[in-house]
Amino acid sequence: MMRSPFIFLLLLLNQQTNGFVPTSTRKNIPSLLSESKNILDNILDKTSPKNIESTEELLMDPLADMNADDTPPSSWSYAQFAQTYPNVNNIGIATIKTASADLLAQVAIAHTPVSDIDWERAFLFCAFGATYLGAFQYWYQVNIFKKIFDVDKFTTQSWGDKLKDTEGLKSLFAQTALDLTVLTFIYLPTFYVFKAGVFSGSADPSVWLSTGLDNYNTNFAKDEFDLVRVWAPADLVCFSVPLYLRLPVRHVVSFVWTAYLSFSRGGH
Question: Which range has the worst mean pLDDT, 50-54, 108-112, 119-123, 239-243?
């Protein structure tokens, strides 16, 4: 019954156009009317109560079309993956970055031929990058820092407003001091223990621990001097930018630092 008014209008149009439309054009009017009728029928079918109900069900349940044969496969998105699995994403970046920095130090800085690359040393930096720089660093710099410090307010301000935010600046220096403490008493010892585990030739973890801590104590003065002069200014920048840029900025600095650490402390 809904279609009769439309058909009536089309027939009326056909009758009204007989007086002023050329004969050649009038001959095509019946076919045009037929096509128009088909289009209207299709529109009315789409808007029938049955189809509207099924559309509403689909909107209420986004997974309702998972079994449809005509549903195109969704393309993989790195941005979506990084948001869904931020820790896994960070571990992957840290592992690749640390291994690449070591290879850079071996080939470009130490001029080691590719055929003579120390793969045990490369494995050391892969394992250390995944464990410490990937998993542990993400955990404490994102989760722990957000609980201890009000990082969101300060990091979203303009640089001019940051310089006027006294409490925010205090928090910035506190974060920097805490990170330098972690780097000194957790990062460096962990690196030397990992190194001992790879190079000592022993399967006894106690040997790794004792050898690693001995090397840590032996090199402490030089390592600490280099660590503070690199990471103190870097942390002031890292902890000032928005949270989503914190680790990417840190990875850039860490790549250079890791290449230096590999060159100076990575060998047997």
Answer: 50-54
The rounded distance, in Å, linking the Cα atoms of 234 and 249 is: 9
How long a stretch of residues is the chain? 268
The C-alpha atoms of residue 124 and residue 99 are separated, in whole angstroms, by 8
Cβ burial of 151 (10 Å; 0-12, 13-18, 19+) is buried
d(CA 33, CA 40): 10
In terms of Cα–Cα distance, which of 133, 75, 77, 70 is closest to 101? 133
Q: Which two tokens stand for residue 161?
A: 């407003």
Instruction: Supply the pLDDT for residue 35.
Output: 60
Q: Which residue has the higher pLDDT, 31 or 71?
A: 31
- Burial of 172 per CB tally in 10 Å (0-12, 13-18, 19+): buried
Integer Cα distance of 210 and 208 in angstroms: 6
The three-state secondary structure class of 56 is helix
Distance CA 137, CA 94 (A): 10
Distance between CA atoms of residues 180 and 207, nearest Å: 27
Contact 121, 196 (CB under 8 A): no
Q: Record the tokens describing residue 211, joined without a space.
A: 């050898």
Q: Give the CA angle between residues 74, 80, 81 to the nearest 5°.
A: 100
Q: Is 206 left (phi over 0), alpha (psi -120 to 50) or beta?
A: alpha
The single-letter code of the amino acid at 58 is: L
Cα 56-58-59 angle, rounded to 5 deg = 65
Quote the CA–CA distance of 194 and 209 in Å, as a whole number. 9
Measured between alpha carbons, how far is 30 from 32 in angstroms, rounded to an integer? 5
Judge whether residue 22 has pLDDT over 60: no
The model's pTM = 0.61
